[in-house]
Amino acid sequence: MRVVYLGTPPAAVPPLEALLASDHEVVAVVTRPDKPRDHRGGTPAPSPVKQAALAAGLPVLTPPRGRDPELPDQLAAFGADIGFTCAFGYLLPDEVLAAFPRGVLNLHFSLLPAYRGPAPVQHALLDGQTVTGVTTFVIDQGMDTGPLLLSTEVPVQPDEDAGQLTARLAEVGARLTVETLDAVEAGTVAPRPQPETGVTLAPKLRPEAACLDWTAPAGRVVNAVRAFNPAPGAWTTLHGRRLKVLRARPVEPAATGPGLTAAGPDTGAQAPDLAADGLDRLAQGELAVGPGGELLAGTGDGVVELVSVQPEGRRAMSGSDFARGARLVPGERLGPRSR
Question: Looking at residue 89, what DSSP letter applies?
């Protein structure tokens, strides 16, 4: 089939590359306009999908919005049979959908109807899901509500963050993209309505949502770190300055007994038995240094190790390196979400 592909970020590149290697013909690509690489501005850069499309010699459209009045006629001019989207970033009006005789399909990074919306991977990790997946469906005017086509389950690795999981889902989704178009062309798949049960939403997460809540259970804190990495990055504050937490893991209760030292300079004194002192469970947001120099923090129901952190204006570093240079004092607290 003749396909117009619509997508923008890195995760949308593998499905495009899979289509280019398939028996289908990608006749054009639509992506969002060039924009500066970061918040500091600078020269606008093309999206990853645009870069891949130009490298393949494909024509590229960069409409300023999904409802651009010129877009339907521009799409119709390519004579495509079908449209296919992945993380395009715009909602598509009826006029755009009507430009394709066989409609527009979408690759979504969840097992619909779970996690409808723009942030399915992040919300799945926040919820501690151990299985997620990818789904193809027919776009309608709802938010990821259209009839289902194919899906594939994907297990979530225990230490996987949003960037890593998204990359894996993109590769699985790339194969599903070709399988779906093959099946549609052959008439071996029929769209079916989404179930009314199991519907959950995955709205866009704002940067302030990435502020770690030290009153939450340890598992929730670790899941938040995973969900917000690499962007916008889970964060807290120390001494009034922002501290990003790039990796964290829960500490087993047995590991917080004798030999754990309260956060502070190494005085050479014998490490206190914190279990005996009733300090084996740190207060919410309280810092401590483990027997191997690990940077630890108290949560609502236990202790987590801050494996990798990035102080404001500095490079990323291990938690133990940060603990050695931070001049922490006993009872030091992270904030602002702690008691």
Answer: -
